[in-house]
Amino acid sequence: MAQFGIEFVPRDLYWKTTFYAIQAEKIGFDYLWITDHFNNRNVYVSLAIVSAYTEKIKFGPGVTNPYMIHPVVTAQAVATLSEIAPGRVVCGLGVGDKTTLQMVNLNQERPLRTIKECANIIREVTSGKNVDMKGEIFQLTGVNLNFRATNPIPIFIGAQGPKMLALAAEVGDGILINASNHRDVELAMKFIKEGAQRSEKKMSSLTISAYTSFSIASSYEKALKAAIPVVAYIVAGSPEPVLERHGISTAVSQQIREAIVHGRWKDAFSRVNDDMVDAFAICGTPAQSVDQIDKLLKVGIDQVVAGSPIGPNMRKAINMIAAEVFPHFKSYDG
Amino acid sequence: MAIEKIARKIPSSLWTEASEKLIDITLNSPNAARMPSELAKTILYYWQRDQLASEIGLQRLLEASMILEPEKTFILMGELGLPDLVVMLKGTQE
Q1: Containing domain of residue B47, as a range?
Q2: Rounded Cα gap, residues A288 and A92, in angstroms
Q3: Total domains present in chain A
Q4: What is the pLDDT of residue A332?
C-alpha cells in the first residue's frame, strides 16, 4: 500500500504545527517530516512536542545536515526522540540548504563523503556502540551515548543528483528523492538501483520516497497561487540538466535567482509559468493531484511526501487530502 | 459572565459547526502569536482526543477566539443565530 508523508516548516507557531501534525495523523499520514533550518523554530523541539500529542505517525527531521549539526548531536537528538516515541523516529539527512548554510559561512564541501560518514556515525551511535572512527571528514574517539535508542532509527537520505541518489541507496534505509515529477523520479530510480546493486541491497529493502512540493485546493488557480513562490525557489536552485530535462531556459532560471537574491519577489514569481509548476510541483485540484501521485507510484515510489506549501489553507488542504486523495490509494481508517 | 458559562449556552446541535468555525478563526488569525501557550496546549490536548466539538473543547476554543479575534467571534455567534451570546461575550470585555 502506498505510504504518505507530510512536511511541515516550523516557521509557524509551535501549536499550529502541532495542531496540523495531529490532524495529519488522524487522517492517516504515515510520516511527518519537519525541516531543519536555523532561522526557523528548532526541529527537535518541534518534533518533541509533536511526539507528545501523537501516537502512531512516524516522524523525523526532513532533513537535517551534517554541516550545521555534528552527526553525534543528531544521533543524540533522534535517540532521545526515540525514547519519547519508540519505533516512530526516522532521521532524514541531506546536504542542507546552500543559502542558509552560507549565512553562517558554511559550504557544502565533499557532500558524498560527508553524508556517507554522517549516516554511519548516526547509525553506529544510536545503536549503542562505542564508536571510534577515523573518517576523512569526521574523527571520533570513544564516542557513546549514556543512554540507548529504544529501536533502530531508519536513516533516509535526501538526494537529487545521480551520485547522491546512488549513495543514498547504499547507505540509507530510505531515500527522499527531491522531485515532484514522475519523469525526474523515473530517472532517479536508475541511479538508486545502481547504488542498491553496488551494496548488494534489494530494492524492496529501501523505502523510496518522492519529496514533493505539493499544493492542493478546490481550483487549480488557488493551488497555483500557493505553489508559485516555492516553485520559483526550486527553479532558481535547480541544476542545468534538470532544467533542460523540463525545457526550462537556464537564462530564466538565472533571472528568477537574481530577483530572489535582490528581494524582487513580484518579479521572481511573475516569471514562474505552468511548465515550471508542472515540472516541480504536484499542484491542482484533488483529481489533478491523484493523477500526479498515481504517476509517481507507477515508477516505483513507496512514499509520497507532500511538502510545502501543501495548499493555500493548511487545514483545508489536509482535509481535502483525506477526503479526496487518500481514498484512491489507501484504505481510510480515520 | 465567564467564557465557560457562555460556551455552555451554545446548543449541542451547533457544537460541531461552532467548533469548526472557531478552529478556523483561531488558526487563521494574524494575531495567533497572542495565544497563551497553556491555552494552546489545552486545545491540542482536546484536539488529540477529538473533544474540540464537546462542551469543554468549545469553552477553550471560545476563550482562544476571544483573545485572538473578538470581533470575528461576535460575528460568528451572530451567524449561528446566538445574539444573546454576542451580548454576553461583549460583556466580558467591559
Answers
A1: 3-92
A2: 28
A3: 1
A4: 39
